[in-house]
Amino acid sequence: MAFTRIYFAAALIVLSFACSKPEIKHSAANTTPASSPTPKLEIADHFAYPISSSETVTAKKDRDGWFKELEFGKDGSLGEHWTVDAGDNGGCGEPVYAAANGNVIYAEFAGPEWGIVTILEHELPSGERVQTLYGNLLDTTIESGSVKMRQEIGHVGNANGRYLCRLHFEVRTPASSAWNQPGPMNSADNKGWLDPSNFIDSHR
Predict the structure, then answer these.
(1) What distance in Å separates the CA atoms of residue 199 and residue 71, rounded to the nearest whole number?
(2) Is residue 51 part of a domain?
(3) N or C: fewer beta carbons within 10 Å in the chain?
(4) What's the 3-state SS for the chain?
């Protein structure tokens, strides 16, 4: 009888080991979100106007073929409107160029008011960053990656017929409420937006 009890107890011990699950050790999960490194930009050591076969144009109708139809700040405009001297839709399809070395941040249709928009980000020699916006485009010829100054990035358009052909051009700082996005075309609050012509003329 004693042998029977010992045998029964031993059988229970073996059974308990067989049924028990081994402890699985899990490494502690890394709950810290991966940070997105700021993309390295080729330094934008100087800027040029984004229209015309020349790096510079004047605001008036003259021999350079382009004129500034709307000044920065007029009627709340957050940028400038550039069109050909001939006016009307004569500028449709003219090339639009990157104002400086940079990276494409945005390049797509941004709604009926904007049409197609391209935004480039630039790093200045000081380490500061600015963005240039090119609006009302007919199309965009580059959707991502880096660009060189005066590289063609699209063509002058009219936002699907909403306006006469023109380029809406902006320069922004990180203080802009529309950093990385089209945002408004006009606003009484222009904090973070710079006068494009003044900026280019002081960074040539």
Answers:
(1) 13
(2) no
(3) N
(4) CHHHHHHHHHHHHHHHHHHCCCCCCCCCCCCCCCCCCCCCCCECCCCCCCCCCCCCCCCCCCCCCEEEEECCCHHHECCEEEEECCCCCCCCCCEEECCCCEEEEEEEECCCCCCEEEEEEEECCCCCEEEEEEEEEEEECCCCCEECCCCEEEEEECCCCCCCCEEEEEEECCCCCCCCCCCCCECCCCCCEECHHHHHHCCC
Contact 47, 100 (CB under 8 A): yes
CATH number, domain of 142, equals 2.70.70.10
Q: Is the pLDDT of residue 157 over 70?
A: yes
Distance, in Å, from the CA atom of 38 to the CA atom of 186, rounded to the nearest integer, reads 29
Residue 136 lies in a domain: yes
Angle at the Cα of 54 (from 52 to 55), degrees rounded to 5?
A: 100
Assigned token pair, 85: 């001297």
The alpha-carbon radius of gyration of the chain (Å, integer) is 30
Domain, as residue range, for 97? 66-201
Domains contained in the chain, number: 1
- Tell me: the pLDDT tens digits for 14-63? 334 444 444 434 334 333 333 334 556 799 999 999 998 888 888 888 77
Confidence (pTM): 0.79
